[in-house]
Amino acid sequence: MFSPDESSCLFEKKQQIREKARRMRKELNLTEKSKMDQEIFGRLFQMPEILTAKIVYLYASFEYEADTWEILKALWKRQIMVALPRTEGNELFFCLVDKPEELIPGSFGIWEPKKDCQSAKGIDFKCPVVLPGLAFSRQGERVGYGGGYYDRFLEKESEHVLIGIGYPFQVLEKIDTESHDQKVHWVITSDEVIDCSGVNGC
Length: 202
Prior knowledge:
Largest sheet: 4 strands, mixed
Number of helices: 6
Number of strands: 12
Structural class: alpha/beta
Strand content: 15-25%
Strand order of the largest sheet: 6-9-11-12
Shape: globular
Oligomer: single chain
Helix content: 25-40%
Order of helices and strands: HHHEHEEEEEEEHEEEEH
Distance between the termini: 19 Å
């Protein structure tokens, strides 16, 4: 448990990590970004957890994030069910999506399922979740956007296989986190696939 001063210091460190990651992503030229997105795509679709999945929890990439739209299309093509997150208040819910028309701009302009979407809860509590992040460590620690949506969701559904995707500069050797921060099992970049569970059993 962190003291108030320690928590404040940790918050500042996370903010610095977020700002640096955002800046570096924004500085990528389109050709370089596209090449790295393709490498991430290729590595992701070599994972048995994805290829044998009945359903994959994904997210709609926004602005300078690693692209997930091609991943979404490829999962549909392979007839693997896909669920995308929808926010309601402070909570995150995953809903089934099988065509682009079922998405609308939500919070901050991020595409999400329409309000009348079908919940994906209960289809597979151990299915892979491809989740966003501004930084990851080799031990599976993650710095998100600060809202805590995924941390709260994963406290309730803790059996999922968690896969973070990003660019090489988003991988750090170590990230200080708090007890409620959820760790990922895998990190995929354009350069490598990192097995975090092999490091710390997360």
